[in-house]
Every structure is written in structure tokens, then in C-alpha cells.
Amino acid sequence: MDSIDLKIFTNSISSTLSTKAHSNQKNNQCNEKIRQPLDPIETYNLLNVHNNYINFNIPYYGWKLFFDDEDYKNDSDTVKKIQIIISFIHRYQRLSMLLSLENLENGIVFIIDMYELYNDQIFLNEWPNFKKDIYENPLHTLNCFKLAVHQQILNSVPQENLNSINIITTLSTVRIKILNYEPIISLQDLKANSYGRLVSIKGCVIRVGHIKHLAQWIVFACRKCNLQKIMKQSLGVYTIPKKCDICGTSKFRAMLDSPLVKSIFFQTIKIQEHSNNDQNNKGSMPRMVDVELMDNLVNTCMPGDDITLTGIIKVKYTYVVNYSKMSGTNNAKPRNKISFSLYMEAISIVNNKQRLQNKNIINSELTIKDYLAIKEVYNTPNIFSLLVHSLCPNIYGHEIIKAGLILSLFGGSVECSESRENIHILIVGDPGLGKSQMLQACARIAAKGVYVCGNSSTSSGLTITLAKENKNNNFSLEPGALVLTDRGCCCIDEFDKMYKQHAVLLEAMEQQSISIAKSGIICSLPTRASILAAANPINGRFNRSKTVIQNLKMSIPLLSRFDLTFLLLDEPNEVNI
């Protein structure tokens, strides 16, 4: 190679390297420019200009906040429904008095009583299909209520004090709670045709998950021009802008450190249906359903609570891959199967424990025949004798024991907080005297009663269990028999066969609570339940030459927890033989 060619080759390489260096320097400057945050005032101005959720040119400023897939039209059915709701709010003073900007910023819950709506003839005449719409299309109907409340509050604020950022970040969340929505259906009636419907169910909380965060609004920045745009995350689905309004690019990055990012609390619980006396359901597993709680409903219930839920039924899909072998070959062919499960997105929760504490509230589940029967029993001269003979009438005699069981089912006074109001009873006796049948009768007639057998129960089954949640390493609480029967009765048969579990009952019987410290979870759950136990002597029959403690395989501290101890003896009688 000549010296001239070598010189030209060297110059070309140096020019190429300088060009690449200049290009890299330019890209680094661009990246630094992109990473450089905008001025807060500039950010607010850009978001106001390129915001698609707030429109001050229509009567309802936040239309897109609640109806993002529907355009505003003056003569649409949605607008007519909103106008009907606004006229109802003016007549319903209990709700209109709370419509203020301060209450909305403080996160107050606006309660809508369905009895008030059904009793308002003007509302039903203007909206005759309201019951059908709230049942079949609850999400659209509730959004009409939210937009009506939202706009009524914004009308009380001067428009010069409003901007789209304030409306989105602080005034976009309208919390509505529905009360007295009927009928209350059982969990066995939840079928696939309940999808998307508004229903009310009742059950007992058996699992409470950890509290998580669910994004509602996320700010995205364009990677090219750094334009910031706020996006609503509908239904918890991660949604990014399609393209930039200035440069047209489709590449964005999330600005999670922006003060405009907004999230709400999220929690999953599981409820179980109440046990009943239906002979057809005996031997079957109790039905359960998952419930999603959001925002103000989070952390409103704990394991063992008896609650009434109103919400929307939704479907959760899961993909299952099965490997099945072909006939005549050893190769496994994957087959995908789709299974779905129903769950509820809760709108309102009513804790029945708190309702029972209020003496002014009357249970609406009683019928006229029930009131007449109660009145007839009340007019009976010797009412306590009638109640004693009505408990397990197929067992003859044992009136003293039945009287003690009746008193334990009624319990003491809740107002007296110095001492516990629950009465613990222990029945000791020979086999074949009807101890188990009396305990089963108490579990059937109690408002919250559970019957367990001692030889098949564990300490976790009686108190509380820590279960690992799916898809993560978090633990959730699953209550046992004592926690599930809070403010009820727990009937334990074969009490002498569970001597290994006697230690866990000491705190529950005296302190009326169970403390747990496992896997980083430290909590205390109430167990205000009456324990009705039945036990057999050590050798099968009671030895009169020994004391009660010597005949029982039980410690003295546990025996002292029982308020009433009854002794049943099988005395052979020649006349009866």
C-alpha cells in the first residue's frame, strides 16, 4: 500500500470515529435532556393542554372520567338518567346536605338507600326500568350516580378556581355505598348467568389477604419530546398512551415519581356460606367465593366476621395445560384448557356484628308468622320451662343440663364489660346418655354455631391458620372454629380425646381472644364464644371412688375455665331392664 493510500485510509477511519463520537455525544445530550424533569408549572400547562378527560365545554365536566367509551350527546339516554338522578338528589336532603367540595376532598362516602329510591314515586315514574338497569347493568347505572354527585359538587365551585389537574387528582374519586339492596341470595345460586349483575350475598370471612396498591392514574413521558401525559388505568389494566400528541411517537416511559400518580388500596378476602339444617346439603363442602375490596372498603373486616356484601359478579380466567398421551405412542401432547371462577367486586359491606350490637335495629328477615309465634311464646306463663323442654325434645329428662345450655346460648349482658358474658359448660358422663345430641341441637339453633369433634380437630383448626397466598410468598389468615363462632357457641364433642389441644383453649376461654405471632404476623382476634364441651371418663365409665379431676384427662387450669360442670351417670335399674 502506498503512503498516499495509507494516509487516505487513516483519515477515513479518524473521520468515522469522530462522527461516531459526535453522534454518541449528541445522543447523551438528548438522553440528559429527556431525563431532565420539567418545571412544575410547565408540567401542569402541558397536561392541561393535552388532557382528554376534562371538558369545560359540556355541562358535565368529568364526563370522560366515568364514561370513557361514550361520547356526550344532549339527547342520549345516559344524560336523561343523570338528570333524573340530579332531581332526586334535590329531593333527598340527607344526600344533598353532604354535597360539598370539602367532603369530597376528605373522601366521605355518599350513601344511597335503595328503600328511599323505591319509595320515591317521582323517581320510579321518570325511570321505570331502574330496578332492571341496576341489576343487569350496575356499572353504568352507578357511574350515572357518581357523575351526578360529581357535577353537583363542581357546580358549587367557581369555574376560575377549577382546572383539569385538580379535578383528576383530588376530585375524580366519588365513593358511593348502596344499602338495603335485596334480595340476598345464597352462594349456591351464583351461576354463570350472574356475570355482570349486582347481587347481595351473606357469609362468614374465612380468609383476609394482604393490602396492596392498585394504580388509578399514571403519568407517562414521551421518550422523544418529553411530553407528559396522564392516563387512567381502567379496571386495573396497565394502559399506556397510543402516540404522542406532538411528535407522534409511540414510545413512553412511566413517571412513577410524579405527584400526579394516584393509587388506591386493594385487598382480597374469601367468604364462606353459613351452615344450615338442610338435609340435602349435609356431607357437601361449604361454598366459598373470593371478594375484591378497594379503597375505603379495605381493612373493614377480619376473619370470623359475619358480613353482608353488595357487589358486581365478575369472572376470573385461568389457563390449565394438560399433557395427555396419544394412543399407541409415548409422546405427550399439550392440551390447553380454560377454567373460570366467579368472584365479586364489592361496592358496600355491612358487618352484621355491629348491627347486632345496636338494639334499635330490627332484623328484617323475620316474617309475620315469626312475630306471631314470638308473641305467643312471650304470653306463655312459664316461658323458661317451655324453652327448656323445646331444646332437643327427643332426649327425655336432663332438665337441669338443658337449662344450663339455654342460659349459655342466651349469654350475659354485653354492657357489663368488667366480666365476660359467655358461659362455658362441660358435660361429663358415661357413653350413650345423649351428650352429643344435645350439643348438636345447640349448634343448630344458635345464631352462629359450630359443632366439631375432638378426635379429628387440631390446634390450628380450632384457633387460626396461616396460609400462603397464590403467586407470592405472603401469608393470609384463615380462622378456625373459635374465631368463626365469635358471639356464638362452639360445641366440642369428645373433649377428652383432644388433650394435646387443651393449652390453646386457655386464652380463648378466659381472655376471649387469640393472639398469634407467626411468620412476621402479630395480631389478636376476638373469640367471644361460649364453649359447650362433652367428655367421657378415662376408663369409659365414671369411677365414683375418684374425684372429677381424677376421672378426667384434663388439667386443673382448663377445668377452672368452665362455669358449669354437669355429671351424667348411667345407673342400671332392674325395673327398667
TrEMBL record:
Domain MCM C-terminal AAA(+) ATPase: 383-577
Cellular compartments per GO CC: MCM complex; nucleus
UniProt similarity note: Belongs to the MCM family.
Organism: Frieseomelitta varia
Keyword DNA damage attributed: no
Protein name as annotated: DNA helicase MCM8
InterPro entries associated with the record: AAA+_ATPase, MCM, MCM8_N, MCM_dom, MCM_OB, NA-bd_OB-fold, P-loop_NTPase
Signal peptide range: none
GO molecular-function terms, A-Z: ATP binding; single-stranded DNA binding; single-stranded DNA helicase activity
Gene3D superfamilies to which the protein is assigned, alphabetical: 2.20.28.10, Nucleic acid-binding proteins (2.40.50.140), P-loop containing nucleotide triphosphate hydrolases (3.40.50.300)
Keywords (A to Z) from UniProt: ATP-binding, DNA-binding, Nucleotide-binding
Alphabetical list of PANTHER family matching this protein: DNA HELICASE MCM8 (PTHR11630:SF47), DNA REPLICATION LICENSING FACTOR MCM FAMILY MEMBER (PTHR11630)
Pfam families linked to this entry: MCM, MCM8_N, MCM_OB
Record SMART domains: AAA, MCM
